[in-house]
Queue: 2 jobs
Job 1
Amino acid sequence: MPPLPVEKFGALAEQPNCHHVFTERIPGIDVSHDKAEALARLDKAHQGIRDAIGFGDWPLLTAQQIHGNKIAVADTPMESDKEFPGCDGVITNQRGTALGVYVADCCAVYMVDPKTPAVGIAHSGRKGTELGVVANTIEQMIKRFALAALPNCRHVFTQRIPGIDVSHDKAEALARLEKAHQRIRDATGFGDWPLLTAKQIHGNKIAFVDAPVESDKEFSGCDGVITNQRGVALGVYVADCCAVYMVDPKTPAVGIAHSGRKGTELGVVPSAITQMIERFGSDPANMIVQLSPCIRPPHYELDFAAEIVRQCRALGVKEIHDPAVCTACDLDRYYSYRAEKGKTGRMLALLGLNPAIAD
Ligand SMILES: [Zn+2]
C-alpha cells in the first residue's frame, strides 16, 4: 500500500493525549471543480485517512468557514458529525471528538491545551487572520474551559433540551425538564450527590453549607449557595439571568449564584464571595469566577454581565471568565425568558467539589 498522503507535526505528535493529521493532495483524484464538488470527490479518501489515523468512529465537527472569526464550542458529548454554520473554528474539551477544517492556501491552526485538556482548530487565511480568528479561539478555550481545568471541582451548564415543549410557566417547565436534567446529572458525575438549590427571588441572600448534607434541599429566600463540603452539588436555574460559578481551589470551597439585573444591582455575587471569605477563609486572589451565557445588549437594555465582572474585580478576584454569549441570540442552544416571553425552560448550572483525591 502506498504511504498515506498525510503530514504529522512533531510538536503535536509529542502530545500523548491528542490525535492529529493534515491530509495532503490525494493522487489520482481530479479536483479541478468548485469546492462542493471537489470535497465530494475527496470524501472517500478523507474517510480512508480518518479510519487509518484512528479518527474513523469519532464524530467530526467542522466549521462552515466563511472567513470570519466566530468559534463553535462543543462542551457536551456529540453523537454525530456536525458543521457549525457561520463559524471558522471549533473548540472542544470532549474526548473522542474530531475537529476539522478544510484548507487550500489558508492556514489550519491547531491549538492544544494538554492540561485541561482541550483542543481547538481554526481556519485562518488573510481575512480570518485580520479578524483575529486564532486569538478568538484561544480566548474561548480559556473562557469556556477554565473550570474544567480544575481537578478538584466538577461543573456543568445544561443547554436547551431538544424535543421537550417548555412553553409554560416556570414550575411546569422545570417539571417537564426534570428527567432530562437528572440524566445529565447522572452522566456528569453529579447523580448521587445531594443537590442544593436556592429559591431564587432576585435577592442577594446566600445560603451556606459547612457540614455534610444527606439529601437535596432548596434554600428559601436565597439566590446563591456556598459550601466547603465535597460531593455536594450546588445548583441554580437560569434563562437569561447569569449563573455565576465561584471556585476557590485552595481552601477548597465553591459557590454558585443567580445574578440577573436585580440580583446584580443588589450584589448577589459580591455577597457570595464575601461569605466565602468570611466563612471559609477564601482568598479572592486565588478564586476563579466563571459566568454562564446570559442575555446581553442588544437583546437587553443593560449589560449586567459586565457589572458582575466589575464587582468580582473590585473584591480582588483576578481570574474572571465571561464567555460573552447571549442566550437570546441562540435559541437553539439556550432558553431565553425575554425572547420567549416568559414561557420557556431553564438551564441548570451545577458546581461541586470532588471527593478528596490524593495529590
Ligand atoms: Zn442577544
Job 2
Amino acid sequence: MAYDNNFQRKMYQGNWQCSKCQAAITELPFEPDQNRLGQLLCRECHRERVKSFGGGRGRFQR
Ligand SMILES: [Zn+2]
C-alpha cells in the first residue's frame, strides 16, 4: 500500500471535447497527442471503454 500514500497524478489542463458524448474535458491525466484530439474520451467514456476491453490496455483478443 506504499504507493497509495500521498500519491498524486499530474493533470494537464486544457479545453477539449469528448469524441463520444461531446462533454467538455478540462483536464487529462496525460498530455493529449495533437493527432488524437478527435479521439479523446472524457473520464466516464474512458472508463466504459476500458471496461469493455476487459481492463487491458491495448490488448485485443483476436
Ligand atoms: Zn464522454
